[in-house]
Amino acid sequence: MLIVHAADIHLDSPLVGLEKYEGCPVQQLRSATRGALEALVATALEERADLVLLAGDLYDGAWKDYATGLFFVKQMARLREANVPVVMVRGNHDAESEITKRLRLPENVSDLSTSEPQSVVFESIGVAVHGQGFARRDLTDDLARRYPRPAAGAFNIGLLHTALWGREGHEPYAPTSLGVLQDKGYDYWALGHVHRREVVSREPYVVFPGNLQGRHAREAGPKGATFVTVESGKVRGVEHRAVDVVRWADLSVRVVEEDVLDDVLERVQGALSEAVGEAGDRLVAARVTLFGRSPKVALCSESAAALTADVRAAAVDAAGEQAWIGSVRVHVRPAIDADALAGGDAAAADPVAHLVRSIRELCADEGELRALAATLADLGDKLPEELRHDPAAAFLDDPEAMRAVLADVEDLLVARVALGDEP
Predict the structure, then answer these.
(1) Which of 42, 68, 227, 268 stands the most exposed, by the fewest C-beta atoms within 10 Å?
(2) CB 53: neighbour CB atoms within 10 A?
(3) Over the stretch 375-409, which tens digit does the pLDDT of each residue have?
(4) What is 41-97 written as a DSSP string?
(5) Backbone angle region of 280, left / alpha / beta, with phi > 0 → left and psi within -120 to 50 → alpha
(6) Which residues have CB under 8 Å from 286's CB, separation 6+?
(7) CA angle at 191 for the pair 218 and 124, rounded to the nearest 5°
């Protein structure tokens, strides 16, 4: 028996802000969630799956129009024609309170209750699926505690959208513990909500398949679903299958002191070519981060637009239309011994040394850090929702992250003052 477990499809996710990136294949990126769902259904049919499980966040929120729902219905109808049943639960993004439009689902699809745990038994394949969806987005109840005992003589599956006991970067919705799941006596737990694939346990199997399609550079690498092979009532295989149609890559390229720009661009091309090779025939959407020490490249960071254009041109030369570069981040430190400057006797007279010492005194003063964070609070409130949860914005609330940002500020200012051509 073959069971396909997928989650976090986020169908028709809007992916706001793409238009600001030069040459961005906006339509290709925004249609990627549809392409991934089509690929999932095609793979399930090709391998003759017996059951498909969808563990929440099928949709990204309320539909803009009925086209989103119609697309899903069409894909489920393909499975119906092959007599493949589908069981789904709602998550925080597609909670009952969030989805205001409705379409009748094909009869092979079971959308489990959001008011209480519900069980569906498929006697022809000897499987019982137990689950409950989200009635509202911010659900913080431990739903799993109320799931029923396992059905006798069946392969029992728990279907749940949950943060489990907490996962970095994910809201603690429907929190529970591994102990609660194990105590239920089920044979497999099909989880959703965490976008990074993880096999939490093998006794029994507790699995996050990750999201079906990466949507930004923080969701890099192969994305897809988990294919579960069951023999004689036991799990015999748990395999990740990539069905993404766009592969996100987060490329970090080291810069060394003797590098000139051409050296760096050549290294970018090498990293991108490797990512393209691993992605097969998929479009690679990449974020490039330059890091290390170099006076020449550190100064380039001041003309970010020109450097970004150089990197994108190098990408076109290396991969043509099979790759697209989104953001280019420069974390290149100047080849200056700032520690020596900060501790030297000349600190009082030397403006660069004084600058370094002032920043480091700020980093060491908790009160000053809190005052700086308060000053920047308005900036945080104005950020779009997706950026507010970006790790890059963590410094607005986290003193340690603030210190790391100030270290970058030190590098940028030292490079500008000490290495610039102007007095």
Answers:
(1) 42
(2) 26
(3) 877 776 666 655 555 556 667 777 777 887 887 77
(4) HHHHHHTT-SEEEEES-SBSSS-SSTHHHHHHHHHHHHHHHTT--EEEE--STT-TT
(5) left
(6) 217, 248, 249, 250, 251, 272, 275, 315, 323, 324, 325, 326
(7) 135
- Provide φ and ψ at 214, rounded to 5°: -60, 145
* Digit-coded pLDDT (tens) for 126-176: 999 999 999 998 899 999 999 999 999 999 999 999 998 755 556 789 999
pLDDT score for 394: 65
Number of other residues whose CB lies within 10 A of the CB of residue 288: 26
Quote the CA–CA distance of 291 and 289 in Å, as a whole number. 6
State the Cα–Cα distance between residues 399 and 184, nearest whole angstrom. 41
Q: What's the rounded Cα separation, in Å, for the pair 373 and 390? A: 17
3-state secondary structure of 351: helix
DSSP letter string over 128-154?
EEEE---SSTT--S-GGGGPPPPPTTS
How far apart CA 79 and CA 68 sit, in angstroms, is 18
Domains, the chain? 2-242 (3.60.21.10), 248-419 (no CATH)
Phi, psi of 153 (to 5 degrees): 75, 10
Residue 152's contacts (CB-CB under 8 Å, 6 or more residues apart) are: none
Find all residues with CB under 8 Å of 317, minimum gap 6, and list them: 269
Q: How confident is the model at residue 347 (pLDDT cuts 50, 70, 90)?
A: very low
Range with the poorest average pLDDT among 90-99, 180-189, 294-303: 294-303
Q: State the Cα–Cα distance between residues 232 and 253, nearest whole angstrom.
A: 49
Tokens 């090709």 locate to 46
| Tally: H helices and E strands in the chain | 13, 15
* Phi, psi (degrees; rounded to nearest 5) at 131: -170, 170
User: Residue 173's CB: how many other CB atoms inside 10 A?
Assistant: 22
Dist. CA 127–CA 129, nearest whole Å: 7
Q: Tell me the β-bridge partners of 250.
A: 287
Residue 114: phi and psi, rounded to 5, are -105, 0
Q: What is the rounded CA–CA span in Å between residue 177 and residue 164?
A: 6
**What are the tokens at 182?**
């194990």
